[in-house]
């Protein structure tokens, strides 16, 4: 979160000043900036598409439990709590 703040305000102040104010190292910031998307975030994007598809096929009636079971049948290996979290992130809920 703090690194994201530095990235957003990099144009206003120097990275050195921002890191110093927040008590962070510049090396840590540049290492964070150079990293790619995490595996979990990539997996979440795949699961979100699958959840959106199941929810759409069910015409918005399914909550997280039936969607979880459909994902398991389709071969996705994710937990019920993860499905619930992702549905919350997307603003999807059953009727």
Task: Write a structural description.
The protein has 95 residues and is mostly helical. 67% of the residues lie in helices and 0% in strands. α4 crosses α6 and α5 packs across α6. The chain is elongated. The protein starts with a helix and ends in a 5-residue tail after the last helix. The model has no long low-confidence stretch (mean pLDDT 91).
Helix/strand order: HHHHHH
How much of the polypeptide forms β-strand, as a percent range? under 5%
User: In angstroms, what separates the terminal alpha carbons?
Assistant: 34 Å
Q: What's the helical proportion of residues?
A: 55-70%
Content-based structural category: mainly alpha
- Summarize model confidence as the mean pLDDT: 91
Please give the count of helices. 6
Low-confidence stretches: none
* Biggest beta-sheet profile: none
Radius of gyration: 19 Å
- The coarse overall form would be elongated
Number of strands: 0
Descriptors:
mainly alpha; 6 helices; single chain; 95 residues
Short description:
The chain is an all-alpha fold and 95 residues long. It has helices spanning 2-8, 15-22, 26-34, 39-57, 64-73, 80-90. The model has no long low-confidence stretch (mean pLDDT 91).
């Amino acid at each position: 979160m703090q690194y994201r703040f530095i990235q957003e305000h990099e144009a206003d102040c120097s990275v050195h000043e921002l890191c110093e104010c927040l008590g962070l190292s510049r090396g840590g910031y540049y290492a964070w900036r150079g990293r790619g998307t995490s595996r979990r975030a990539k997996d979440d994007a795949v699961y979100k598409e699958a959840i959106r598809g199941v929810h759409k096929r069910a015409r918005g009636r399914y909550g997280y439990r039936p969607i979880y079971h459909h994902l398991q049948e389709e071969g996705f290996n994710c937990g019920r709590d993860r499905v619930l979290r992702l549905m919350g992130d997307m603003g999807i809920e059953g009727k």
